[in-house]
Amino acid sequence: MSDQPFKFAVSYAKDATFAPQGLWSHFEYRNLGIADVTGGRFGAHIIRAKEAREAAFKRHKHDLEFQMFYILKGWFKFECEGQTITVRAGDSVHQPSGMPHVTIACSDDLELIEITSPAEFATIDVE
């Protein structure tokens, strides 16, 4: 991470590209350019499902300072702290560092925004 001052940035929807560059191959990611203008201190992506999915996800946790996501479209079902949680458009989740979780299923039209600090962080598989 850098100590450089933050820079101004705009990410236009008309120029948006989605790529399978993130954690899961079942999703596509649109980088909003926040990591570049904050020296890696923050990251933001729009994540969308390529198709409806059930299972095939691994339990994991993240090593980071901050992670939250906001559901823009569709729904997302996951297990965290022994609870099965389903979030839908308009819902948000803050997930503390080190909290094991697993995705159970998502709709084929799922779209969410994820904001993290730092932009790059470790993901650790959990048995």
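The record above closes out task 2.4. Task 2.5 opens with a second protein, given below.
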Amino acid sequence: MNKKRISLILLIIWMIIIFIMSSFDADASSNQSGLIVNFISSIFNIKNIELLSFIVRKLAHFMEYFILGILFVSVIINYNKKIYLAYIFGIMYACLDEFHQLFVSGRSGQIFDIFVDCIGLILGIIITNIILKKRV
């Protein structure tokens, strides 16, 4: 299998993972982040669980889309397309992801989450693009 197909398959798999994670209802989503919050709060003796939970959830959004940005760049470069397409497709996916959450029990699509997603996406694209240009 060539690099083009592998990069495209990895991108599609990651998009499916994001979609699946967005499909968890509010309780399942809270349980997921709750495990991490409890672990961190026990290690660092953090008392403000609500703030920590907020930070963990937003970092999860950031990291999901940071990785998505890296994968989009990989596909765009392997198919010799313009890098701006990674931004367009990534931002569209972030918007669709939040729209999808409007239909999931107990979840809501939030503009702030799109903002966090896009920051992760853009940083992933920029950093990957810089690294790849230095390698050439």
